[in-house]
Amino acid sequence: MRSMRLGPGIPAGSQRGLAGSAKLLLAIAVLVGIALGVGSYALVYAKGLSYMSSDPAVCANCHIMQSQYESWQKSSHHNVAGCVDCHLPHDLIGKYVAKAVNGFNHSKAFTLQNFPEPIAITPPNARILQDSCLACHRDLVHDAVTAPGRSEEVRCVHCHQTVGHGERAALGGPRS
Length: 176
What we know:
The protein is mostly helical. The protein has helices at residues 14-45, 66-73, 83-87, 92-112, 123-145, 156-159; strands spanning 5-7, 10-11. It has 6 helices and 2 strands. The chain is elongated.
């Protein structure tokens, strides 16, 4: 008995494998389509592309940041520095890496509702903030920051915590 062929060089037994591959590809296409659809909806709903700008109003997209935005508007730095000037690295790659990491962490925290209130700066972001203070004020504070005998770095916000966001009372009061 001659073996049946579907076409030049394709044995009849291969038909089942091709049909299985088509179903697998269809399933993958459907899953990718669902992921892209949900991701696109979330990006639009959460105003995701707005986070690529440097507009301080973007930081208030989320209600938890409203008091920080309002207190910044009343602060001494309002006319000279926006959110990204203080809270993101000044180099291009560092800026977008920090935006990506913070964006992921913020999305996760707000989705799972597991963030402290009032919100608090994380140690990596506190280092970015310190570097930003020094980028503008290094000549003015060089001796205070690099004084010999200091066991730990002097943080600008230790003495100047109201510079960027006004009085702490505007941020939900002192931490317990």
